[in-house]
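Repro:
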Amino acid sequence: MRSNYSGLQIAIHWLVFLLVIVTYCAMEFRGFAPRDWRPYFNIVHVSCGITILVLMIARLLVRLKSPTPPIVPKPSPMLTGLAHLGHLIIYLLFIALPILMYNRGGNWIAFGLSMPHAAEANFDLVDMLKEYHVTLAMFGYYVIALHALAALAHHYFFKDNTLLRMMPKKRV
């Protein structure tokens, strides 16, 4: 059995990481941009969100097909359970966030293209879904921080190979 994830799994993981940073930054920094630039920040946010959705589904399919490399030394059942719960939350979060904003009720642009939308939107529903989207996105900051802290704890405190399994191989 492999001691680390496949190159594809590692690439998807780190690409999603970078896209999440860009997606969050697009929303956090758009208020600092001139008003006429703000639609471009929205396009970046939406385009990255859709890409994250596709990559998370691909990552999930690859993960279901490929065995997970073992953690050495083996963690306690409680830590293993918490890790599974954490990964479930990450998958659900980054799949749900883009889906929540699909029915926007008006023209929206992703990848520079006008996207399909509902002919008539229920604006109360759109407002509610947007609130959920924002709340889950804020929750995402905590999930990301816990994920990173858990990886660092495994590396420095538990001294296992959890973090190393997701790192690209060094070229010799």
